[in-house]
Amino acid sequence: MAFIVGKECNGCKYTVCVDVCPVDAFHEAEKFLVINPDTCISCSVCAPECPVDAIYDEFDLPIKQISYLEINRNFSSLYPVISASKATMVFRK
């Protein structure tokens, strides 16, 4: 079991969630974050930190966002770990 970053993070990359992750499971893509499901220990401390409610327990992921299971898995192998928050990058208009 792992936590997953859903579509709400696309274009609205807040990074406050990474400060509380005890295992550095977050990876930073250009316009969103993902969680490495192999690193995540399902502690759930990141979810309440997300100001746009983009972090889900994989079993609570909305059915329309099921593709984010693979997006998180695949992108976490392509992008670097982020372990400290940065200035918020908002790409939405």
TrEMBL record:
Keywords: 4Fe-4S, Electron transport, Iron, Iron-sulfur, Metal-binding, Transport. Residues 1-30, 31-60 form the 4Fe-4S ferredoxin-type domain. The keyword Signal does not apply. It holds the Pfam family Fer4. Its cofactor is [3Fe-4S] cluster; [4Fe-4S] cluster. GO terms for molecular function: 4 iron, 4 sulfur cluster binding; electron transfer activity; metal ion binding. This is Ferredoxin. It comes from Glaciimonas immobilis. The lineage of its organism: Bacteria, Pseudomonadati, Pseudomonadota, Betaproteobacteria, Burkholderiales.
